[in-house]
Amino acid sequence: MRYSSFVLLLLFSFSKLSFSEESNWLLDQSQKLMKIAAERNDNYSFAKKPPSPISIEDAKKLFGVNSPLVINSERVRSVVDSIDQSQNKLIFVSLSMPNNAFQLIVDNAISTKSTLIFNGISEGSNFHSFRKEILSRLRNNSEIPPISIDPLEFEKYAVKVVPTIVITEKNVLKRKVKGTANITWLLERTENKKDFGVLGPTYQILEESIVEMIKKRLDTIDWEEKKRKAVSRYWANREFIELENVKEAYKFYVDPSIEVTKDIITPEGQVIANKGDMINPLEKIGFTKTYIVFDATNILQREFVRDQIANLDADGAVAVLITTRMERSKSWKGLTELEQYYEQPVYFLKREIVERFGLSKVPSFIYAENKMIVVNEKPYQ
To answer: 9: number of CA atoms within 13 Å, CB side?
Structure first.
């Protein structure tokens, strides 16, 4: 079963990053990265002990000025200003990431105008609680990047771990890298390849694909039971209008004329009708059918109506059958049997018809005669 492509956006805010001009920004980002490695206990020489303050120059020496693991504010600003705006920058993330790693990603997403993408929501969460969990991690941020939940993007770009950075152009993959928050480094690559592999610590994707989650929930639904309950509700709530049975023949006329309450004028200025005019639709529109309103639960009426239909057919007239009610317990099966009995559709009487034609008894035959509507109540016994 294929599900149509969709993206559920959770846009928290859009804003421009105010770049820090202070050189301490580089030191701060470097120390954050050191903490990430320390938490992961990865095989980096600087990750074997808690980070201690170092100078900016030492940080540059440690990482290398052009290392993919070093985020330089000047380079970020320069690259972002020069990149092709048709490129789309996506950073795939998960709440499995430590807070400081996640924060580093967020900072870089803001500075590079990138979108953070989650695969789904955490197990046991709903969208409200998941949004709340994300916001709790971003409580110290004055700006928040665009955030979306899009498992189809995870699938499209074969994202299996986070963080993964993907740069696309017209929805076509241009570059991809895993294990770094430094999207600037990826934007600057000139090598003739698309996948730059793994450059640093990666984490498993905690959230289940929202598509898979929906599939699982749909699989647990008993659709036959849903259908049965829907049918039951329909017939339980179906309004039936009970009218008295005809005891003696009676015929009356209904004038279908309507009064024009406002001048009717075409765009060209032609007057179709003036306010106060009386218009009889039967003068313009034919009324060739005979509407038979009857009680389908009354066996005698059912047989009488069938005989009347035969007479109308002989005269070339067309009958439209409308029942006031039927047995609720038979539901659709009963309606099907009724239509098979008459070999034509059977409709339910609406209150508007009762009021418009002044119906009070059944069976009643409604037809046109001399530009008037006739309501003919016929005894059936």
So the answer is: 7
Task: Per residue of the chain (381 residues), give pLDDT as tens.
Answer: 433 333 333 333 333 333 333 334 444 544 554 454 455 444 333 333 333 343 445 444 434 444 454 444 444 444 445 455 568 899 999 999 999 899 999 998 998 889 999 999 888 888 888 888 888 888 888 888 999 999 999 999 999 999 999 999 888 999 999 999 888 888 888 788 899 999 999 999 999 898 888 888 888 888 888 888 888 888 888 889 999 999 999 999 999 888 999 998 999 989 888 999 898 888 888 788 999 999 999 999 999 999 999 988 877 889 999 999 998 888 889 999 999 999 999 999 999 999 999 999 999 999 999 889 999 999 998
Amino acid present at 73: S
Let me know if residue 102 belongs to a domain: yes
Contact in structure between 357 and 340 (CB atoms under 8 Å): no
Residue 100 in domain: yes
The model carries a pTM of 0.48
What does the alpha-carbon distance between residue 98 and residue 36 come to, in Å, rounded to a whole number? 7
DSSP state of 208: P
Question: Would you say residue 231 lies in a domain?
Answer: no
Task: Answer whether residue 356 is part of any domain.
Answer: yes
| CA separation for the pair 163, 201 (Å, rounded) | 8
Tell me the residue range of the domain where 369 lies. Answer: 244-377
**Residues 209 and 249 reside in one and the same domain:** no
If one counts the domains in the chain, the total is 2
Residues in a beta bridge with 164: 92, 178
Tokens 């050189």 -> residue: 23
CATH assignment at residue 347: 3.40.30
Q: Report which secondary-structure segment, H or E, holds 100.
A: helix 99-112
The C-alpha atoms of residue 175 and residue 167 are separated, in whole angstroms, by: 5
DSSP 308-364: HHHHHHHTT-EEEEEES---GGGHHHHHHHHHHHHTS-EEE--HHHHHHHT--EESE
The tokens 């993330």 sit on which residue? Answer: 93
255 CB-contact burial (10 Å; exposed 0-12 / middle 13-18 / buried 19+): exposed
Enumerate the β-bridge partners of residue 117.
Answer: 92, 148
